[in-house]
């Protein structure tokens, strides 16, 4: 059932690619402060990074209003998603997720023998929280909510999600993947860290890979109840998992509003250009809350991706609700121009 991962798609890209729009990366990052911190960190990088972890825990703890022992940091959020998949499904059971949604955690759980219950999105391409809640049964080990959702870039209603989480988390843990939340106007009003602060059984995963532009530097984190952090930590390399240079870069750019707002604004400008291109060619799209856009295509998905690739543009395809879709990540304006040039030839 599952689609190719972001990793397997970009790993095969030829070096002469004009526009790499297949892994939801942010070409406007990392920030100048992050780059400077990496250079400065080099001299001390013969040391193990234990104190760097502490410094980053403390920064996140202060900003989010949680305790440092409620935080784990790892090499991106992927190891945290995998830790949760392994822990919750090592004795079987099922995991509930959207269809389509980000496949990494559920597909890891499937590898470990869990059943995946995929719940189709609503007509607005949002996670169907009511339908997901109905699927929870006595074999359910975890509910996975990706908000904003990858690959549709849609967000669920915040109050509806908060109510859902309050009820469902009394039965099973709820894992909220907030990889793209930084692209929203006011992430602090949307994040489910608020539920963790109320004592609910919720895990929130975040990453520096997206708006911070750290996909290659590898820093991500999770916030949960202290016992949950301790449990998930057993499945990771803990304070050996991220390089001091990457940690220093994360510390230097965490909540750097000037950089983040600028990257967001550039992303929006490129997205507007993409919307116009699609409209001019007679295509609809799903309005996007993140740095990628999903739109229905008029060609078989794999063929479309192949035709774009022949023209030096890498995108991805999905098929659901009896329709082929293309997901295009938002790049620089020249990259979006390369997309537009290729798209006009085949649309
Ligand atoms: N979660 C979502 C929704 C993603 O789209 C991705 C990557 O594309 C990840 C998590 C994992 O990213 P990383 O391991 O770089 O934090």
Overall description:
By secondary structure, the protein is of the alpha/beta class. It contains 14 helices and 12 strands. The strands form 3 sheets. Strands 2-8-7-6-5-3-4 form a 7-stranded mixed β-sheet, sandwiched between helices. Strands 9-12-11 form a 3-stranded antiparallel β-sheet, covered by helices on one side. A two-stranded parallel sheet has the order 1-10. Helix 2 (32-41) packs antiparallel against helix 11 (244-253), helix 4 (78-89) packs parallel to helix 5 (104-111) and helix 12 (257-280) runs parallel beside helix 14 (333-346). It has 2 domains: 6-29 and 257-346, Aspartate Aminotransferase, domain 1; 32-253, 3-Layer(aba) Sandwich (Aspartate Aminotransferase, domain 2). It has helices at residues 6-11, 32-41, 50-64, 78-89, 104-111, 129-135, 158-168, 187-190, 193-197, 226-233, 244-253, 257-280, 301-310, 333-346, and strands at residues 19-20, 71-74, 94-99, 115-120, 140-146, 174-177, 202-207, 220-223, 292-296, 313-314, 316-320, 323-329. The model has no long low-confidence stretch (mean pLDDT 95). The longest helix is centred in the C-terminal third of the chain and has 24 residues, at 257-280. Strand 5, helix 7 and strand 6 (174-177) form a beta-alpha-beta unit. The relative contact order is 0.18. Bound molecules: pyridoxal-5'-phosphate. Residues 6, 24, 76-78, 102, 146, 150, 177, 179, 207, 209, 215, 220 line the site of pyridoxal-5'-phosphate (PLP).
């Amino acid at each position: 059932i599952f689609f190719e991962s972001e990793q397997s798609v970009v790993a095969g890209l030829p070096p002469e690619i004009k526009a790499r729009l297949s892994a939801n990366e942010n070409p406007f990052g990392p920030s100048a402060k992050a780059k400077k911190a990496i250079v400065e960190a080099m001299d001390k990088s013969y040391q193990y990074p234990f104190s760097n972890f502490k410094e980053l825990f403390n920064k996140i703890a202060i900003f989010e209003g949680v305790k440092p022992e409620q935080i784990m940091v790892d090499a991106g959020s992927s190891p945290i998603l995998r830790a949760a998949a392994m822990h919750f499904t090592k004795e079987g059971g099922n995991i509930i997720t959207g269809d389509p949604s980000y496949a990494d955690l559920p597909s890891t759980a499937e590898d470990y023998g869990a059943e995946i219950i995929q719940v189709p999105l609503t007509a607005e391409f949002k996670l169907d929280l009511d339908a997901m809640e109905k699927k929870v049964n006595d074999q359910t080990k975890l509910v996975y909510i990706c908000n904003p959702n990858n690959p549709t870039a849609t967000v669920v209603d915040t109050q509806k999600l908060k109510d859902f989480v309050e009820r469902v988390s009394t039965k099973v843990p709820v894992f909220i993947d907030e990889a793209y939340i930084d692209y929203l106007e006011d992430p602090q009003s949307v994040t489910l860290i608020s539920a963790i602060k109320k004592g609910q059984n919720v895990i929130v995963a975040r990453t520096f890979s997206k708006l911070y532009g750290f996909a290659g530097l590898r820093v991500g984190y999770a916030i949960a109840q202290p016992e949950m952090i301790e449990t998930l930590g057993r499945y990771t390399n803990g304070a050996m998992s991220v390089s001091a240079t990457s940690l220093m870069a994360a510390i230097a750019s965490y909540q750097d509003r000037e950089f983040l707002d600028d990257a967001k604004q550039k992303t929006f400008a490129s997205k507007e250009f993409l919307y116009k291109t699609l409209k001019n060619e007679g295509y609809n799209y799903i309005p996007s809350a993140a740095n990628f856009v999903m739109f229905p295509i008029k060609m078989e998905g794999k063929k479309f991706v192949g035709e774009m690739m022949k023209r030096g543009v890498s995108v991805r395809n999905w098929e659901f609700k009896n329709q082929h879709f293309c997901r295009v990540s938002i790049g620089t304006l020249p990259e979006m121009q390369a997309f537009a040039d290729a798209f006009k030839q085949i649309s």
